[in-house]
Design a protein that fits this description.
334 residues; mainly alpha; ABC transporter involved in vitamin B12 uptake, BtuC; 14 helices; 2 strands; 75% helix; 1% strand; globular
Length: 334
């Protein structure tokens, strides 16, 4: 007998993804009207290059949101990953990236385990680690920027294959992997279960320690990976960098349909959200507009995504609003 509940959830997810995709299409269409030739292979490549580091951090923080938690430390973890990778670059890019990701996974798992074990708010804990991890970055960098002497790995990372690069291919592969894990693996089911209803999940025999620890380990690893790859591609890292990573990652996750209450959303939606932010950033850059315009548009898009989700859930009764508008309209004289 087919699992009716699973079918209903999958159907709702598909409808939500279509809504997110529609938002992305509207954003692209708007810039295409304003900017002649906006949709080109060159510009699509630039959009994906901007979207990839956002997407890496967003997929990580999105998994913690699906688990009903929140990782505020991703910005500082991205900085720390970048500083570690650049500092260890003489050992080779593979070893440098692996070291950064290993540290990210270890620190993420530690804070996730403590959050689940002590049953404390992840917001409180990750505010502390937000400060702590950036402090580690300052300590490792000696309160200064660190730089590379060779840019060969960075050149390879940005190699173009049509509109793609090894960097953007990596994000797509990770999204596919996370989608598979959330839908077909035991740990993925546990993450979704504790995010959707922790009391019910615990009553059903799921212990939060494992899924929460793994969710934060993954978030830390993805943030460190993004910081490492971006820093190696641009040839350096600074402890003051990646100041907007947390905000853009959360925005991409929410725009992509990850519920703030947990247990709802898809990594494909996060990818859509990251690309939408990449479109805005690229469009504003092409127009030569100030940076704050990109922030305004991204914030507006986030509000639109939140409102659309509230409407789809029935939290904003459109029927009631229509009646209220009609009552306010003046009566037409006979």
């Amino acid at each position: 007998m087919p699992n009716i509940a699973h079918w209903a959830t999958a159907n709702a997810t598909r409808k939500d993804l279509l809504l997110r995709l529609l938002i992305l299409v509207v954003v692209i269409a708007a810039f295409s009207i304003v900017i002649k030739g906006f949709i080109s292979v060159n510009n699509l490549y630039s959009i994906l290059q901007v979207a990839t580091p956002i997407g890496l951090a967003a997929v990580g923080v999105g998994v913690t949101m699906l688990a009903g938690e929140f990782d505020l430390s991703v910005g500082s973890m991205t900085v720390l990953g970048g500083v570690i990778a650049v500092s260890m670059a003489p050992l080779g890019p593979g070893a440098a990236v692996a070291a950064a990701v290993a540290v990210g996974i270890g620190l993420g798992a530690t804070q996730g385990f403590l959050i689940a074990l002590l049953r404390v708010s992840s917001l409180v804990v990750t505010i502390g680690t937000l400060i702590l991890f950036r402090g580690f970055a300052y300590l490792l960098a000696g309160d200064a920027s660190v730089s590379l002497t060779s840019f060969e790995f960075g050149k390879w990372l940005n190699t173009r294959v049509l509109m793609f690069s090894p960097f953007s291919f990596l994000l797509i592969a990770l999204v596919v992997g996370v989608w598979w894990a959330l839908n077909y693996s035991k740990i993925g089911h546990e993450i979704m279960a504790i995010g959707g209803g922790r009391r019910e999940a615990v009553a059903g025999g799921i212990k939060p320690q494992r899924p929460v620890t793994i969710a934060f380990a993954f978030s830390g690893g993805m943030a460190a990976l993004g910081g490492a790859l971006v820093s190696l591609s641009i040839g350096g890292a600074t402890p003051t960098g990646f100041s907007e990573t947390l905000l853009t990652a959360v925005a991409a996750a929410v725009i992509g349909g990850i519920a703030l209450s947990g247990g709802k959303g898809s990594p494909w939606g996060i990818l859509i959200g990251a690309i939408a932010l990449g479109v805005i950033s690229s469009g504003v850059s092409v127009l030569g507009a100030p940076t704050y315009i990109s922030q305004l548009l991204s914030g507006g898009l986030l509000l639109v995504a939140l409102l659309s989700e509230m409407v789809s859930r029935g939290q904003i009764p459109l029927g009631f609003l229509r009646k209220a508008i009609r009552r306010r309209q003046p009566a037409v004289a006979a």
